[in-house]
Amino acid sequence: MDRRRMTAIGVLVAAAGTAAAVTLPSFAGENPVTRRAAPAASDGVAPEVLDALSRDLSLTRDQAARRLKTERWASGTVAKLRTELGADYGGSWLGADGTTLTVAVADPGQAARVTAAGAVPKPVDRGVAELDAVKTRLDAAGREATPDVAGWYVDVPTNSVVVVAQPGAEAAGRRFAEASGVPAGAVRVRTADEAPRPLFDVRGGDAYFINNAGRCSVGFSVVGGFVTAGHCGRPGDRTTGANRVAQGTFAASSFPGDDWAVVEVNGQWTPQGVVNDFNGGTVPVNGSTEAPVGASVCRSGSTTGTRCGVIQAKNATVNYPEGTVTGLTRTNVCAEPGDSGGAWLSGDQAQGVTSGGSGDCTRGGVTFFQPVNEILQRNNLTLVTAGGQPAPSAPPAGGGSTAPPASTAPATPPAGDAADCTGQVSRTGRIAAGRAQVQPDGRFFRVSGGAQEACVSAPSGARVALELQRFTGAGFRTVARADSTDGVARLTADTPAGAYRYRVVGLAGAGEYTLAFSAR
387 or 358: which carries more pLDDT confidence? Predict the structure, then answer.
């Protein structure tokens, strides 16, 4: 059966904030990152978060504050126990009231260790690594799943992997599980009227536009840009902000399989570690510690604002019409078209970006998010937080090195009079009008200060600009620029010590270029 599409949803975390930021609609000429930040409540919890939790979880503000405090303790305790228990760790979850942390153990002899940490032990047959292995086998057989199978996920409270089938299609779910060859006792089939779909038809509060057409929203700011949903764009797609000012370029994207993307912004945008509260202010993002199953979580989206619920499961696979996405986190938070790519927070900790879901905020529903730590790790990114901008020693977007390695052999210039365009380091790439590339290799390098020299040989018949950018603590800023003349752009700058990178910008034409520069 054909699945209904939920067109994209998007939350814009001000194109400048690396920490999760949920933002309000921008008006012409307004810079979303200059909005006031809401005062923090006690224990660093923003009052807007407490209000949203109170509304959606039927708690008083005091109860919400106590729950968040317990969840912070639980996150640290789980991280410690997971390391200590090793293969015997069977997963963990908070009870429905958010006060009791249960930790499953495959070896009853480890129960005392769990009790000593303040949690409740539960003996189980399988460690979480074994459950993950079962789910991996289901993932490998995913192409055999029919549209009657909505997805599958690891369910640690039942020590099993759950296959979700449409009502009346339990047999299809069982056949899929049997065909994958997984142990029958490790899988259970449940029915639910779910038809997850990625949220493409995006609109946002402070939205960004892709190629001046589709819209999505920023998830979280990272040094040099932001992360969002992969179904929003592909590498090379250009973005503009809600104010229609040129903003950046998709540097990396993965969908299906995963659902994440990285947008690199230009010097006009400053990443900030906040999320829009959809009430005239912002809430801070102070890290990305992963919350356990059962923890409260809030999603910010441009269509439905801030909505809260609890984490139901991790390592979930979803069969979208466009393809299968795995490794998602399942929640009971509602979402609607326009919320895709948006920010998920547990307290003040970034959790992920909105992928897709089923249902709406009138009837309720299920929504999935792509965990943010995977995006950061896979792309060597640094999250921007409200407590202070990361130092250059933390890798800016794309990563970095002390100094890039010199080429093993001089590069042959692809065009005209560029034979003397040589330097300590050289790189080649392809460029086209309206596109830009960061060198070396999408990363940065450090220098001790002094003169920097560089040149780029433009493709035959093309024009390019060469920009030297310095990391300032809030992002990269252009400190020197040169346009090509007679096929070559040359740049010299006297700079202080710091982290730098080059951008080769296509002005006209297309083809292969060679960049050569010093890196002292």
Answer: 358
